What does this fold into?
Amino acid sequence: ELHAWDVTAALLLLLAITAFVLCRRDEGFLVVGWFWFLGTLVPMIGIVQVGEQAMADRYAYLSFIGLFIMVGWGVSELADRRHLAPVTLAAPSAAVLLILAMLTYRQLSYWSDNVTLWTRMLAISSGSYEVEENLGVALLDNGQQAAAMEHFEQVVALVPSSGAIGRELAGYAAVAHLYLGAYYQHHGQPAVAIAHYQQVLSLVQDFTSQNVYAKVPPVLIRMKAVALGNMGDTYYGLRNLPEAKASYEAALQLDPRNTQKWIGLGIVAQKSGDLVSAADAFSHATQLQPSDVTFLLLAQALERSGQSQQAQAAREQATLRSQNLAAAQQTVERLISQ
It folds into this structure.
């Protein structure tokens, strides 16, 4: 966090160095180096922020060439004034290069893999929800689910639960809740999973209510759709068919091209005895993903609703698309019996 005195002190320092360089303008390397530094730094100091990072080390790489010019030519100028032989500078120059090489080697080791990189970033940062989340994702990719969840919990703790919430905060918190919800959903804690999914819905709602004139970012809409779809799966696992149906329908309003949720909605409708709605849902699934499984699901719903002719046509479509109809039928039976 920057304070007024930080900005003032930095500005005074820049002005002092500039004044010194101008007073020594006969030493051209100082002028070239300093104004190279200042000139190339201007597009990179965040007057207009581009992307998520307001500051990054890479923004200074080009600018630092100017400082290297000042140091390199400055050392050479000092050596000439003191009449030092070139060999006298060889040992300290070699030592400096060796030290820099060792530091570079050490720094490169942090980039060996994502877990190592983000663990290092966490060690040198304080309370960064972005670093916590990236480390969590890296651990997930590495198969360390339980360890990843600890960092997603930290993201949730770092993002304020009330007050003004921006797109970035809402996005990071929503992703963390989605990962936590999926973890608990698949580890036998459906109530905890649903609570996390509801937090995603709450975050999107809070962002919408606080930014009434701003369009909700597509990424938040997608996360809301995922949360609703996962809630549908979780409620279905609890045999709460009304809530499962409502969740699937809400998810499909946001993401109508999600084949799996149309299948879920169809299964819920079929188990609820609404065969017409089941057939309609499976029909949408066949349009999005015309496969042996989707056509067999449609055929089963049509047959149970007394539409034998349409059911036979759906079975023929399944046969045309199937390389193993028996396996596809087993998949359908498993889906229906869950």
